[in-house]
Amino acid sequence: MSRRALAVGVLCAAAASGCGDRRTPPPDIGRPANPVSFSRAIFPTQGVIFRGPTNWLLIHGYPPEVATIHDGQAFVAIWRYPRVEPLPATTTELRADIPALLRAVRARDRTFALLSARPTTLDRHPAISIEGFETIAGQPLQVRSVHTFYNHAEVVLDSFAPPSDFARIDRLVFTPLLRSVRLRPPSTTATPPTPATPSTTATPPSPAPPHG
Question: What kind of architecture, by CATH, is found in domain 9-26+36-201?
Answer without folding.
Answer: 3-Layer(aba) Sandwich (3.40)
